[in-house]
Each structure stands twice: as C-alpha cells, then as structure tokens.
C-alpha cells in the first residue's frame, strides 16, 4: 500500500527557516510503498540469509594477495534481484620444505663435509613429490646454489616455468666417533702443510695487522 508518511513520494520535506530540505522517507526507505503483511522469514525484504559453497578455479602459480572475481556469485540486489559479484582474496600457505620468490622455488639441502669436498650426488625433492639426483661439484661451499631449470612454479598467465634453486648447507657433525676424529686430525695436518691461496692471503694480512698493532712505527716529531 501507499506509504502514509510520504504519501507515496518516497521523500519527505523538512523546513528550517527559509530553507527546505528533501530527504528519503524513513518509513518506506524511498520506495513510496510499504508491505502491510510482511513475510515472517524475510520481514518484507524479499531476501533471506543462506550459507553455501562456490567452486572457483585457481590458476597455476597464483600468489598471495591475488583477488579472483566470481561473476554473479554475490548477493542479489533488493531492487532487481540480480546477483552481484563475489571477490575472493587468495592466501597461499607456506610450504614446509620450499620457499618461494615469484615463480622461483628455493630448497635448502643439507650435505656432508665429505660430499662438499669430494663431490658426488645428492637427492633433491621437487614440488611434485619427485626425487632428483643432482650432481654436487667437488669443492662446494656452504651457501652455494644450484639451479635446476623448469623445476619451479609456473608463471601466472604464461607458459614459462621458474627454476628450482637448491641451496647447499654443509653440515658439521656435533658428535664425532674416535675414527672420525682421527681422520679429521690427519686432515688438519694436511691442511696446515697445504694452505689454500685465499687463506694464505688472509693469514698474511692478519700477520701484517698484528705487527702494526704490536710494533707501531716510530713517529718523528715535526718541527
């Protein structure tokens, strides 16, 4: 029926001195009509709340912070009944093994001291659950990175696939057997007799520094 408060206009007029203001009718909310016997479930709004699930397609390589749009997945309009859109903000959970930088995957693989020194093969996991045998170069240092092409994540909206970056972590044993300790003592003697070039350069710099500190040059008094 016609709203008795605004007489069906949907607006009401109020005056303050010489000024007149028109505002939306507070009773019919601008519709001009009211429902005399509203529905007990929707209270005359024509809408009721329901919980539901919507299936959405997640593209490969998606990153956290991406917003996906589901057309007509939102709430219906009170006037027309047409549904709006549903926006989904994506949060990618952290992986227990891999770190991510865009399409690049980073995996830290522990190796023994002997494997780092002599070289050999090590097993490396992939994001698909496979295990790859990777060649470890002799003389590998802690923190060295091996690059495995096309073993990372796919780029969003592209055919390119990023690499898997294998970061080597040389493990030093905390508990040594007597045999292991004896071998390390032998290795230490060999290392003392054959000092690598980089360490030899450092030792020379250290020796010169100590000499300057302990035996400073005599300073001549200036006239």
From TrEMBL:
> Mind listing the UniProt keywords for this protein, alphabetically?
Chaperone, Metal-binding, Repeat, Zinc, Zinc-finger
Q: What Gene3D superfamilies does the record tag this protein with?
A: Heat shock protein DnaJ, cysteine-rich domain, Urease metallochaperone UreE, N-terminal domain
Which InterPro entries does this one have?
DnaJ_C, HSP40/DnaJ_pept-bd, HSP_DnaJ_Cys-rich_dom, HSP_DnaJ_Cys-rich_dom_sf
Question: Could you name the domain of life of the organism this protein comes from?
Answer: Archaea
Q: Name one GO cellular component term.
A: cytoplasm
Which BP terms does GO give this entry? protein refolding
Q: Give positions of the CR-type zinc fingers.
A: 1-51
For this UniProt entry, the molecular function terms from Gene Ontology, in alphabetical order, are: heat shock protein binding; unfolded protein binding; zinc ion binding
**The CR-type domain, residue ranges:** 1-51
PANTHER family, alphabetized: CHAPERONE PROTEIN DNAJ (PTHR43096:SF48), DNAJ HOMOLOG 1, MITOCHONDRIAL-RELATED (PTHR43096)
- Name of the protein: CR-type domain-containing protein
Native source species: candidate division MSBL1 archaeon SCGC-AAA382A20
């Amino acid at each position: 029926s016609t709203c008795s408060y605004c007489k069906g206009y949907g607006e009401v007029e109020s005056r303050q001195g010489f000024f007149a203001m028109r505002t939306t009718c507070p009773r019919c909310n601008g519709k001009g009509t009211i429902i005399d016997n509203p529905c007990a479930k929707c209270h005359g709004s024509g809408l009721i709340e329901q919980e539901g699930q919507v299936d959405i397609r997640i593209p490969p390589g998606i990153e956290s912070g991406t917003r996906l749009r589901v057309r007509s997945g939102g709430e219906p309009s009170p006037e027309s009944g047409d549904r709006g859109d549903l926006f989904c903000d994506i949060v990618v959970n952290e992986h227990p093994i891999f770190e991510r930088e865009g399409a690049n995957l980073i995996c830290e693989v522990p190796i023994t001291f002997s494997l780092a020194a002599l070289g050999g093969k090590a097993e490396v996991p992939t994001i698909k659950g496979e295990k790859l045998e990777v060649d470890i170069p002799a003389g590998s240092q802690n923190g060295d990175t091996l690059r495995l092409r096309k073993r990372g994540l796919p780029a969003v909206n592209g055919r390119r696939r990023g690499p898997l970056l294998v970061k080597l972590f040389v493990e030093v044993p905390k508990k040594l057997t007597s045999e292991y300790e004896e071998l390390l003592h032998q290795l230490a003697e060999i290392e003392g007799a054959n000092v690598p070039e980089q360490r030899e350069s450092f030792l020379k710099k250290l020796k010169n520094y100590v000499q300057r500190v302990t035996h400073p040059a005599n300073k001549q008094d200036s006239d």
